[in-house]
Design a protein that fits this description.
This protein has 161 residues and is an alpha+beta fold. It has 3 helices and 8 strands, in the order ββββββββααα. The protein has 2 domains: 1-93, Pectate Lyase C-like (3 Solenoid); 101-161, no CATH class.
Length: 161
């Protein structure tokens, strides 16, 4: 059972079972240090939520609205962030791991690892299609489909914005 409080007033907003969080409206919720490990948060509205220090390991955050959410210090290992909107989210001190793609993607400050390829952000931004195709014969299609998301996540994490 999770108790959700209004960040400003301290008022209890809602008590929720972890299994009923899919598509939940948790906008502005104070979930600091919450244990949301393995939670199904698909399509949940977490815009402006305080998730600092939260355990989101293995959480399903596909298509979640995380606009302006505070994810500083959150454990996002093995979390599924496909299609999640992280615009304006605070990702300081975070490690982002993206599973479910052709290769696992690990993103830390100014660094991206995709499968066995590990490079700084600037290199990934400047790789040509030829460079990418030399990594793996199917890598160009993967990179074209996912480059923008991966680069943007790394930039947000690196710049703390």
């Amino acid at each position: 059972m999770i108790k959700i409080y209004n960040r400003l007033s301290g008022e209890l907003i809602k008590e929720i079972d972890l299994e009923t969080l899919r598509c939940a409206n948790l906008s502005g919720a104070d979930l600091r240090d919450a244990d949301l490990r393995d939670a199904d948060l698909r399509c949940a509205n977490l815009s402006g939520a305080n998730l600092s220090g939260a355990n989101l390991r293995d959480a399903d955050l596909r298509c979640a609205n995380l606009i302006g959410a505070d994810l500083s210090g959150a454990d996002l290992r093995d979390a599924d962030l496909r299609c999640a909107n992280l615009s304006g989210a605070d990702l300081r001190c975070a490690l982002i791991v993206i599973y479910g793609l052709a290769w696992t993607v690990y993103i830390t400050k100014n660094h991206i690892t995709i499968g066995c390829q590990s490079h700084i952000l600037g290199k990934w931004e400047n790789f040509s299609d030829n460079d990418i195709s030399q990594m793996h014969r199917e890598a160009v299609e993967f990179w074209r489909e996912n480059k923008e998301m991966i680069i943007n996540l790394c930039k947000r994490l690196t710049n703390g914005i």
